[in-house]
Amino acid sequence: MILIGLTGSLATGNSTVSNLLRSPPYSLPIINADLLARQVVEPGTYGYRKVVQHFDETTPDLLLPLSDADDKATQRPLNRATLGRRVFGHEPERIRDRKVLNRIIHPLGRLAMARQILYYHFMGYWAVVLDIPLLYESGLDIFVSVDIMVTVISPEMQI
């Protein structure tokens, strides 16, 4: 099976390329790392419990209130904006907290990614696209056979 790494900066067209590869004639499955990172911290998951365990006491409004639409939900979802303010920035405590959050999310996301790769392999797909914004920074580029880096350049530079 060929693993195709898809990466690029924000707003460069990764989703467009991903949609092209998902559609005929390619019809390739797409594994989206950002989506997996959200799924591994959904209420009821191990990742959710670890994030709440570490950040809840020191982060007011970490959890959103349950809405009326969430009749089946028993746990309040994470307030991603609040958590983001807690971990993004250059101050030492934010860097420390970001490392803690990454130590929770990254292994779980990689495990979920490996499970999906195995699933598509057993389903007989010849290739899978790994849409990973930080493909090189995360060191996951060593697992892909082909890299697609989406970039945007000025019209003067285009051929």
> Which word captures the global form?
globular
For the sheet with most strands, the description reads: 4 strands, parallel
Average pLDDT: 91
Total DSSP E strands: 4
Spell the H/E element sequence.
Answer: EHEHHHHEE
Q: Could you list the spans in which at least 5 consecutive residues all have pLDDT below 50?
A: none
Number of helices: 5
Give, in spatial order, the strands making up the sheet with the most strands: 2-3-1-4
Distance from N terminus to C terminus (CA atoms, Å) equals 33 Å
Which structural category do the helix and sheet elements fall into?
A: alpha/beta
Question: What percent of residues adopt helix (DSSP H or I)?
Answer: 40-55%
Radius of gyration: 18 Å
Our estimate of the beta-strand percent is 5-15%
Task: Describe it.
- Helix 2 packs across helix 5.
- The protein contains 5 helices and 4 strands, in the order E-H-E-H-H-H-H-E-E.
- Strands 2-3-1-4 form a 4-stranded parallel sheet, with helices on both faces.
- The protein is an alpha/beta fold and 159 residues long.
- The protein is globular.
- The protein is 41% helix and 13% strand.
In a few lines, what is going on in this structure?
By secondary structure, the chain is α/β, with parallel strands linked by helices.
Indicate the topology.
Blueprint: E1 2-8, H1 14-22, E2 30-32, H2 33-39, H3 46-55, H4 80-87, H5 92-122, E3 127-131, E4 146-150
Parallel strand pairs: 1-3, 1-4, 2-3
